[in-house]
Design a protein that fits this description.
Structural class: mainly alpha
Radius of gyration: 17 Å
Number of strands: 2
Distance between the termini: 19 Å
Number of domains: 2
Number of helices: 4
Shape: globular
Mean pLDDT: 82
Low-confidence stretches: none
Helix content: 55-70%
Length: 117
């Protein structure tokens, strides 16, 4: 999603407009990349760096790493992001909401700890 500002005019992409519409129609709306990354790093290094910045206590750091791995496995197993063949469908909005809150809590913790919020 992006928009550009040039010559006193804002131009919105179709994806930006879709995001605006979806945010008005849904109770929960979170846009994110598959993996939050530090620029110039590979994914595993990026995740390691973010978790290191988030948790200084080794036991809590391990807990966050386990949670990140579990959420990754959930995203790859359940039909919550895409309607891909071979994924397990969730049977209720409460199940989607449960996973959403787990992911949101981890993302918010990381964003705050790394000074991005």
């Amino acid at each position: 999603m992006s928009a550009t500002y040039f010559g006193g005019e804002v131009k919105y992409t179709k994806r930006y407009k879709l995001g605006q519409l979806l945010s008005q129609l849904t109770r929960h709306f979170l846009l994110m990349t598959a993996t939050p990354q530090e620029s110039g790093k590979d994914k595993r290094d990026s995740v390691r760096i973010l978790l290191d910045k988030t948790a200084h206590d080794p036991a809590f750091r391990k807990t966050l790493e386990t949670e990140a791995q579990e959420l990754s496995a959930i995203g790859n197993s359940y039909m919550i992001r895409h309607t891909e063949i071979g994924k397990t469908p969730l049977s209720s909005s409460e199940q989607v909401e449960y996973f959403f809150h787990r992911m949101f809590s981890l993302m918010r913790l990381i964003l705050r700890a790394t000074g991005r919020v």
